[in-house]
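Service request form, structural biology core

Requester: graduate student, group of Dr. S.
Request type: structure prediction, single chain
Budget code: on file
Notes: please return the result as structure tokens.

Sequence provided:
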Amino acid sequence: MEQYRNMLQTLSKIPPTGESFLLLSQDVGMKIYNRFSIRRQLQGSHMDRIRSLYNEYVQLLSKEGQISCLLPRELWENSEHEKFGGSCSPRVHSTWPRSLLVQLGTHLVELMVQTIKLKNNMFSPRSEPKLIPVLYHMYSFRSTRQIGLIKPHPIYSQMLLDAGETLLTFETSVMPMRCPPLPWTSPHFGAYLLSPSKLMRSGEGAVQHQLLLEKSSPGQLFPVLDSLNQLGICAWRINKPVLDIIVSIFNDKGSEKLDIPPPLSEAPAFPLQNTGSLSSWDKLSYQKEQARCRKKAAEMYSLRMDALYKLSIANHLRDQIFWFPHNMDFRGRTYPCPPYFNHLGSDVTRALLLFAEGRPLGPNGLDWLKTHLINLTGLKKKNSLQERKQYAEEIMDDILDSADRPLTVSLYYLLDYFYIAYLFIGCHFSYSIAYLFIGCHFFFFFSQGRKWWMEADEPWQTLACCMEVANASRSPDPTKYISHFPVHQDGSCNGLQHYAALGRDEIGAKSVNLMPSETPQDVYSGVAQQVEGFRQIDAKKGIKIAQVLEGFIGRKVVKQTVMTVVYGVTRYGGRLQIEKRLREMDSFPQEYVWEASHYLVQQVFSSLKEMFSGTRSIQHWLTESARMISKSGNTVEWVTPLGLPIIQPYHRSKSVMFHSNLQTVHVTNKNDANARPDTMKQKNAFPPNFIHSLDSTHMMLTALHCHRHGITFVSVHDCFWTHADTVDIMNKVCREQFVSLHSQPILQHLSQFLIEKYCHNAQSHNPENLKMLNLFRDVPETGSFDLEHVKDSTYFFS
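Core staff response, request fulfilled:
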């Protein structure tokens, strides 16, 4: 019965438009592996010891003040030594390779196609009954590639639709936990109690990350493990009022404006017609339109199901406290393990989450809530924090209206109105009917909420914050109001902040708010102004394209290119980005788009070279180092300042082919350590990956020191969250740890590591080895920016 139920659950998740045979096979294979791993865990004798330890661990965590004394890992290890004299972690088992998962899944999918059947006359009882397959295999094109699809029969899809089945079933490994996660104590123990979990996420077939972690000395990884544990022990709860509003819109055909996907019934209808009488051109047009409608329907189904998963999980947890176990990618960037519902999600998902622990707002908490609210709207990005708070006071009527009447009339005022009408009935019955009738129309057409929150950049988080501000403002003493609301502080173009600190760039540091200032600096506007200056000089020289561009150079044109410079965008890629922005301008002469984008990308790169002189030289040094390492047949490795070993997993693709009864399956592995490195990916990815490893280090340091201060801390990469009353403490810690991190000779340490790793034979007369050695030694020079200024910069994170 259990296997039958599992099979039906798999069937119900296949969309009406079909699922890739390869992806479905892999998913089924992974389900088998997870079940196998859990059963193996349960059969092991160590589970009794872990259960005993876990009970004690949770009790220690729950003791008030205990968490600020010892780290979760230390609590667990102390209990292990006291009870059992050493570690009781389970024996490490190897994971199944992707090719095995796919082969196993392929076999099971074939069985499902062959054996699961239904009657063809379910919706036409007069027809002769006949058993037909529920699933069938077909081929279709995705872009230019032909792929195999497993598609449910329309009768089955209609049956599911008519049944209105609302039960969704998820693997435990994709759900938030209803108890605190196991602390990470080693690369192979932590997170879920039973479900298999990796400390480091990796691409399919990549094993080199795990090998590096296991070779590390135990103490080397403790800071990284402890920071993951700090993120994982944060308890959460659901914002039920916001959830109810979102669900009501979801059930009422959604809202594109509010990012609530509509149901498939709202997909564009495409009238069927006989193509026999159409010309070849009309036939082609008909087929293209049909394909467009199918693609749109598939996209709508995918978005709708994604929203359904998130809202269903939130509703399931609406009265619960829950936790998100964390792991990391190969660069050290941290992520919650549950993929569907977590605080890294969209505006909708983030609006649904509150800290389970509440804290009094204190003297500054309400001000931070108001400032955070204006930050979410995106209305006052260029204004000071004081001006943002003042603006919140000025529009308090809109804020309270949004909180009280997010969608429609306030029930309180409506009841009050009908009470007055009821009193009026006693004396003037005939007039009261008209009074009530007119009053109803007045309320429903003129007294609906103004919906100010809907115009914000992040509407749902804005609404949630409006409700919190309203509740706090109306409390008898706002300083004592218990708030569960997370307040965010965002880095200011964080990748460039790290580059400016590495290169000690004075101008660059100022433009990304490493220097104190009265109002926040905007690097994108700064670059746009400098490019405009270059344009004016060229226009005076008579350069035609510079004259054509007059009045068209603004922040929006250069923003994407400036932002992606951190991630290694080339001039070609930057030109395409600028071209897209110019094509969006109706007033720009389109015949000049190519020439203008070519001109502008050169000016943007020139501007960045002036503003971030150290940045460009560091990027070039990293890129060239990676190119030479890859050329020598090696992959790029380094170690973060916190001791996390990193290796770039980019190799040339290898493909394994095997035959099934339905189709030939190709399983591609781009991460096989035995294959030669992919030089292009190795060199292009090194600068952004290195910077990501630094921003993750900064986050981890902040997490560890916030733990010492006894405050809640979670992050979405370069966006840090805490309670409203502890924002000032977190801000102080965040700045101190950034200065502490970049006070280390990071580039010099990297240089020394690369020399020791790749230049074993320093006496070699091989020209390539000597060239590589000289390159590693030639660390870029830095400027004169004083890092201590960061501690006084209000808008470094704000």
